[in-house]
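Reading a protein record of the kind used here takes only a little practice. Think of the row as the fold of the chain written in a discrete alphabet. A record is reproduced here so that you can trace the correspondence yourselves:
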Amino acid sequence: MTSMLPITKAVIPAAGLGTRFLPATKATPKEMLPVVDRPAIQYVVEEAVAAGLPDVLMVTGRNKRPLEDHFDRAYELEEALANKGDEERLRMVRESSELAAIHYVRQGDPKGLGHAVLCAAPHVADQPFAVLLGDDLIDPRDPLLTQMIDVQRQLGGSVVALIEVPAEQVHMYGCAAVAPADLDGVVRVTDLVEKPAAQDAPSNYAVIGRYVLDPAIFEVLRRTPPGRGGEIQLTDALKTLAQREGDGGPVHGVLFKGRRYDTGDRADYLRAVVRLACEREDLGPGFRSWLREFVEQEIPRETV
């Protein structure tokens, strides 16, 4: 079954407290933490726009006003830069406010990812849509979301992104049982378990933070009771859709082997900053040179 409705809307849940990055996130949303010289959330919006989704809804909570400010015009700053003739920085400042049509809705009660997605129902209405989690940054050279949208158009239903992880890491993810599908690099999802113990995992295929969902997910979420952690789990609702032919199902998984930067963990966040800085044309050459010298100087000290 193919989907004829266009996909134009992206939903970005951004209501989390960011407790793993305290005290930095006491007054600053975790989505605004810089990755080189842009906040993490801007990379996610840019990914949605590059995939052809010009309409972005952010599901926010308390103390998230800096997100709105970042994607709004900053007239005083723009005027100061214009008066200085600093066209390059003026372009960068304006860029974020011109990326997309960005809307906001408050989640209110922190009832989990499934509840955050459900908050998007009035805005999304009856169209399929994408969900992008801000902790996963996908390298623009690996257009995962574009591929997922293509799969949804061909096969209908809903689509998740899957990566293979070591057995000792499956407890950190939603985990999928899979069966073959008719497209290369795509599998059919037959079951989903949220953060299982290694011995209970149906496979080592883990769901990462990209989804293309049929709007039938909203009705399923409304009937989904709280699951792991007392929260409404998107994984549980997708498990229901995975059992269907039509009416929001089935669920397929795109096997992703590209470049992914995890900014939800402090150590992985630092690795992401280093990797992206190394690949920048303006920063990379000098930064890589310094990094080589630093490693050569520091590693022997640790091994003595």
